[in-house]
Amino acid sequence: MIRVQTEDFDPGAELEAFSAGNGKVGGICMFLGLVRDYLGDDPEKAAQVRGMTLEHYPGMTERQLEAIETEARSRWPLHDVLVIHRYGRLDPGARIVLVATASSHREAAFQSCHFLMDWLKTKAPFWKIEHTEDGDLWVDAKDKDDSAAARWDQKK
Amino acid sequence: MNVLYFAWLRAKVGMGEERVVPPAEVVTTGQLVEWLKARSDGHAQALADLKVVRVAVNQDYVGWDHPIKPGDEIAFFPPVTGG
Description:
The complex is a heterodimer of chains A (156) and B (83).
Chain A (H helix, E strand, L loop, with lengths): L1 E4 L5 H7 L9 E8 L14 E8 L3 H16 L2 E9 L1 E3 L4 E9 L2 H18 L2 E7 L2 E4 L4 H12 L2
Parallel strand pairs in A: 1-4
Antiparallel strand pairs in A: 2-6, 3-5, 3-7, 4-6, 7-8
Helix pairs in contact in A: 2-3, 3-4
Chain B lengths: L1 E4 L1 H7 L3 E3 L9 H9 L3 H6 L7 E4 L2 E3 L10 E5 L6
Parallel strand pairs in B: 1-5
Antiparallel strand pairs in B: 1-2, 3-4, 3-5
């Protein structure tokens, strides 16, 4: 299931409801992404980010996320998939994204959760603008995200 | 056709969406870019370096030689930074 929304979500409640009542589920893996309070890769620049705004392409976002979910389900035996991605203005510490996968065994849950995040990073049409002490900065895409996504091209 | 711009491309072009009717010889995404660049300085700046621009036709990623036709939704945007 894919949800794209401005509202916050409760990870505990989502986890509780996720695959509730499905006795075949033996393991759930969940990734939660948060807004950092520092710029780039340097934690020493802490507190420079006052927040960010996430923009997306309504329609294409849902379409791409659904395609990524379909791909994950074709690669691993999954009972359930949940992707929640927020957009709009977010403060440091705010939740941005949740990905959860449920399978009978842990390996499929771990791998598919990792895969979903890596592909989401490079395919879902979201853009971040950081609000900093020096003004607003569009976040650049990172090469390491491309290589993280590409490693799943070789694996099955 | 409907052309959409996102993130810093929208800021440079000065609008998020426009309806355009390019001449009949404009039949690929790459040719549309060349035609759009002549519309304003903002368009020319936004579309100057295609290495940092992605294009989608009807909400699917495509390349610069992809065919386009009247009625298509064509979006230009930077490499994505979600998650």
